[in-house]
């Protein structure tokens, strides 16, 4: 995986093969960030990266100037890898939390401008994840939640749903705290 833009641009990051992850592809990540940069100034964006895995999205956010990024994963190996990589690259803006995402969200109270989640594609609790984010009011007023998921899952009926985008096998659904119907 590589960091696409920002102060760590073109940096290659090689994760150990034994991590239980499916990193977002570089093509999908680049497409995602092309969309996001039209909605937010990363230098003023606080972000939460759920099911962080290798930290791929977190590194990109820090590289683009986010002043605070919180990465949450329950796997010891993933958490250790993200911490080691953040320390090696001197990413002081990145805080890593080892926790079950659902427990973390149930107790967490900080608001974020951007929340990204990449749960395992066989996750059966997408609705619970979305509910915890919106019921606990974890997004700022102009905040956005992006959920990566497989092609068989759809959220068009959710009241905060904005749009779904497809990039190969990767699907992103965008949700907002508040939005205009034709905003995307």
Quick tags:
single chain; 184 residues; alpha/beta; Rossmann fold; 27% helix; globular
Describe it:
This protein has 184 residues and is α/β, with parallel strands linked by helices. The chain has a single domain, classed as 3-Layer(aba) Sandwich (Rossmann fold), CATH 3.40.50.150. 27% of the residues lie in helices and 26% in strands. It has five helices and seven strands; from the N terminus they run H-E-H-E-H-E-H-E-H-E-E-E. The protein has helices spanning 26-36, 56-63, 76-88, 101-107, 126-135, and strands at residues 46-50, 68-73, 94-98, 112-117, 139-149, 161-167, 170-176. The chain has a seven-stranded mixed sheet, with helices on one face. Strand 2 (68-73), helix 3 (76-88) and strand 3 form a beta-alpha-beta unit. It is globular. The chain starts with 25 loop residues before the first helix and ends in an 8-residue tail after the last strand. The model has no long low-confidence stretch (mean pLDDT 92).
Look at the helices and sheets and give the structural class.
Answer: alpha/beta
CATH architecture classification name: 3-Layer(aba) Sandwich
Give me the CATH fold name: Rossmann fold
Lateral arrangement of strands in the main beta sheet: 3-2-1-4-5-7-6
Q: What is the radius of gyration?
A: 15 Å
Strand count: 7
In CATH, what is the class? Alpha Beta
Run of helices and strands: HEHEHEHEHEEE
How many separate domains make up the residues?
1
Task: Please work out how many helical segments DSSP would assign.
Answer: 5
């Amino acid at each position: 995986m590589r960091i696409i833009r920002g102060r760590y641009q073109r940096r290659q990051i090689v994760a150990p093969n034994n991590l239980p992850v499916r990193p977002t592809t570089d093509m999908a990540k680049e497409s995602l960030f092309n969309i996001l940069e039209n909605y937010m100034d990363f230098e003023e964006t606080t972000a939460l990266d759920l099911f962080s895995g290798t930290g791929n999205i977190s590194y990109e956010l820090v590289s683009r100037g986010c002043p605070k990024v919180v990465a949450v994963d329950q796997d010891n190996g993933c958490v250790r890898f993200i911490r080691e990589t953040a320390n090696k690259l001197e990413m002081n803006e990145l805080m890593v939390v080892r926790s079950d995402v659902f427990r973390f969200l149930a107790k967490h109270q900080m608001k974020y401008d951007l929340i990204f989640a990449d749960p395992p594609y066989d996750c059966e609790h997408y609705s619970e994840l979305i509910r915890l984010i919106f019921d606990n009011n974890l997004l700022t007023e102009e905040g956005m939640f992006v959920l990566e998921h497989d092609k068989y899952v759809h959220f068009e009926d959710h009241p905060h749903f904005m749009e779904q985008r497809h990039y190969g096998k990767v699907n992103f659904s965008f949700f907002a705290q508040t939005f205009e119907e034709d905003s995307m």
